[in-house]
Amino acid sequence: MPSEWTNAALSTLSERGYRAGGARTAVVELLGAEGGCMEAESVAARLREQGKSVGTASVYRALSLLADLGLLHKTALPDSPTRFELVLPGGEHHHHIVCENCGRTEPFSDPDLERAVTSISDRVEFEIASHDITLYGTCAGCRAA
Parallel, antiparallel, or unpaired: how do β-strands 105-108 and 83-86 relate? Predict the structure, then answer.
């Protein structure tokens, strides 16, 4: 069953004049099923595992288009390939905590943090269009080791 994001993404593509089928649809369906937060190479590998003959260049083009349309958010973490995350239709938003030792990455949401960002916007001469916050530390597994 397609996810809400999959349906919204396919609808947006259609509304913007992009045809269904091929690599683009395969990428959308995979990201919707997996929940996003994937690297381009991982998307290509998973599609190949599913028996779909989609070239890596086609995956990169599809991911770039989806990001340009506001359906994906690119997250660049230090020493990691860019990850692509779903931009959910309801506008839910999250950030990341990254373990500096093993690279484990966890998403998190915090209403107080969002209020702080809004408060900053009210105090400076900028209208904040978007933000991405990444916290760094050591995960429980690495602390225990």
Answer: unpaired
